[in-house]
Specification:
alpha+beta, globular, about 170 residues, four-stranded antiparallel sheet
């Protein structure tokens, strides 16, 4: 699978915006554009498919057509980003949530809890946020914590994480 790192480009693009609303709007617009480009390319690669709602198995099965159209692939780098949203147990139940979608994040029932002097734990339905928690906030998932599974986030990153997710940190006693 081809991995594309857009972090430096996105940092330049996002630095243009001065308010949180402008930034959220731009990020959501990019997500829509990426999804549309991915679906269009998916339809090109699988002409017999009725919809692009089942891309979890199709990109792996269509490896040979991608090799033939390498020029198209280099010109259209953003559609390659979409397959990252799938996992080994792919299916319609495994979807990622954009960090700018605060309504969807609120429905996940996330809570922060101070775990020890060095870290906090984010609990709730965190699976849709796993990539963001791991890559952006340096979180580590642990299923064997006292109190149940959750994402362990260092104190240095917890305030930024809580702010991005629209959560308030409880006062630690």
């Amino acid at each position: 699978m081809m991995r594309i790192n857009f972090s430096s480009v996105l940092a330049d693009v996002f630095s243009q915006y001065t308010t949180a609303d402008e930034l959220k709007s731009a990020a959501n617009a990019m997500c829509v554009q990426i999804k549309e480009a991915y679906e269009a390319r998916f339809k090109e690669l699988t002409p017999n498919a009725k919809t692009a709602s089942k891309p979890a198995t199709a990109p792996a099965a269509s490896a040979k057509p991608e090799a033939k159209s390498k020029k198209d692939k280099t010109a259209k780098t953003k559609p390659a980003e979409a397959p990252k949203t799938e996992t080994k147990s792919a299916g319609d139940t495994d979807t990622l949530v954009a960090i700018t979608d605060l309504k969807a994040i609120k429905k996940l029932g996330l809570t922060f809890e101070k775990y020890n002097d060095r870290c906090w734990v984010l609990r709730g339905d965190t699976k849709p946020l796993r990539k963001i928690l791991k890559e952006q906030f340096k979180g580590v998932f642990n299923s064997h914590l006292s109190g149940g599974e959750g994402w362990v986030i260092k104190i240095a990153n917890v305030e930024e994480c809580a702010k991005a997710l629209g959560l308030k940190l409880p006062k630690a006693a």
